Amino acid sequence: MKNLSFLFLKQYLFLKEILAALSFYRLRLFFSILSVALGIGTMALIVGAIDGANKRVNDLFEMFGPDAILVISGGRKTILRTRKNTLTWMDVKTIKNNILGVYEVIPMDMDRGIVKYKNKKWLTHIVGTTPAYFSSWQWYPQEGVIFTQRDIEEKRAVCLIGIKVKEELFPNTSPLGKHILVKRLPVQVIGVLEERGTSTGRHHLDDRIIMPITTLMQRLLNNDKYITLLRVRTHADLKQTEENIRALLRHNHKLGPLAQDDFDMFSAAEVKQILQVISGSLLLFLGSAGLIALIVGGFILANLSYLSIRQRRREIGIKRACGAKRVNIAASFLAEIVFTTLLGGIVGVGLALGGGVILERFGQIPMIFSAKIWGLALGLSLLVGITFGPRPALKAARIDPIKAIRG
Question: 393 burial class (0-12, 13-18, 19+ CB within 10 angstroms)?
């Protein structure tokens, strides 16, 4: 018991000595912590962004549906220049009636324009579709109702709005029953969509209004034939269904054997693969930047440690003259460095949390900070201390005590 008490006392005095040394050189401690914190914070922010991106990939995949295919007007080369409308109502009908396994075809037309309510204006996405859109995407109103097939047939000027549009045009009142001006057409709001809270790039999913497709096409776009895209769902194999749809559309559009497709298709698996490639590229780019920041922070820490040794040469010489061994000097300086990096890791996580809030609010970048962020921060902090600490610590231990005292 006596030996154990002596050991605890020895450790306590050792820790007290480290804290006293660090508190004495506060400015150097501040810059040492800051250099590590910036690197650790960058890495923690990257991990939070990657976790958020992966969650978004999974959310978008679930929303898209594992049995869904998106057919888009215009081929890939056409999209790069100007969108060319090629899908028609005949395509909707023939896909539904002739492709084996298809149980749902949702036509959609898209536009972008200014919507107004009194003195408020907002630029948003306008989607024209059918009532089946809501059940297909599992996206229902949190207030009000959806439009009906009769609204489609009579081209009624009714719509549902996303949460983002509601916040911009109706921040303090219910929009139900109110009329908004969509371009030049007064449209009655009959519902507010549930919040999705996700986005694709800079396109926020809650920033949209949805109206009968005939209303958008004929009353706003002066078009009664062409459709922007189709959402097709099937019980059959997705690859085979894609090939069948491709063959049917090429026949409908009278494309020759050498002609390129004048439409494009994406399945749920392809969408997930594209998003994962983007997420992987983000990890590679940001991970490299974070690693560089961490290494730079380590070098700054090492240089500040060398400066500390020069300032404390007399102190080291006196300790050696009083019987301190080289290993004790080295252990003391290494412990100071590791303790500093751990403090830097904690501060770095705090910086990452603050940066994450800013990025989510102003950059629309999803962030997820799980418990592994703390493990990563402490692990990297220890790694930086163990990597960049031994050399300055050994240099301190090799100082000649007589020369140090004289100097």
Answer: buried
